[in-house]
């Protein structure tokens, strides 16, 4: 269930959000976008969880892949709807993963 | 509820985990660690959510602050207990936040 990412360096987009009260269509669009993102060149995986705050981290090969995904037309439509309807607030952080380590039983 | 971070560059530690079936003491230790982390030099904030996967992102001024927090004795004890008892698997990613942007109603 954790994203299986390659050895660093690679990139992470941390998308943190708080939903508004109007969430009609949000879950469907979320699933669509995860599906669409996973088909993009340079996509390496993602992890997602939501309680009061929702956090989705998507992992990418390089900045160019992130830029192309941000400009994808369907994704832009989802971003517009997100601002208009679904999100009370959000923050996107573009990060270079410099080091990682893990543990698995 | 979103972390109020300064202008980049700063650092993010993405800690993604799946819990094991033995979670006794986990919630209490989590709260203790968030509290302790927030008192460390260089701590800038954090965001956290858990469903099947738990994601905690903590934000830091620089790599040195992250290193000192990792070596904190109480934190090391929590890390050891985490490996022994609470986590089925986890991954820690140390990232440099290069750019961020957001939206608030």
TrEMBL record, chains A, B:
Instruction: Please give the Gene Ontology molecular function terms for this protein.
Output: monooxygenase activity
Keyword Oxidoreductase tagged: yes
Judging by the UniProt lineage, the source's domain of life is Bacteria
Listed name of the protein? Heme-degrading monooxygenase HmoA
Q: Which residues form the ABM domain?
A: 9-79
Supply the alphabetized keyword list.
Monooxygenase, Oxidoreductase
Signal peptide interval: none
Q: Which InterPro entries match?
A: ABM_dom, Dimeric_a/b-barrel, Jasmonate_Hydroxylase-like
